Amino acid sequence: MQEYADKEALINEIKKTAELFIKEFDDVLENDKRRLIEGVDKRPQEMLAYQLGWMELLRGWDSDELAGKKVVTPDPSYKWNQLGKLYQGFYEKYNDYTLIEMKEMYYSAVNSLILWVQDFNDDELFNPGGRNWAKSTPSNWPVWKWIHINTVAPFKSFRSKIRKWKKLCKA
Question: Is 72 strand, coil or helix?
Fold first, then answer.
């Protein structure tokens, strides 16, 4: 797994991969956002909903913890072995939005995520136990790893998916 020398390196990677991912949607037509292509397991709308959902969850866990609320990961309605149902909830939540609206929400979510990351000190971000929610699974990951796994990594992998989707869509 990729590691980061410091907070700025993490933020720069978020910015870079987020931009590369979202630019792939510039030539996706609104009428095609729910089109499932054989060989790609997600529709464009689902790819964006997934990203929006995870960015919201991450910030929500932290916001709840800082407000003194009990944080249940991944979500009070779902256990870790029910991620498919969690993703379905993301897809339903964003189902009625246009691609333009979802792209705007994505840019806003990425900007909020970056501001959130900037607020962490290095100890909170890079050492295990920086937040209680981050040690909610046996992995006891530092916060940066949760951020990477739920933003940078899927920005990259879903960029490959949307590129494949577009290529097969034209075939």
Answer: coil
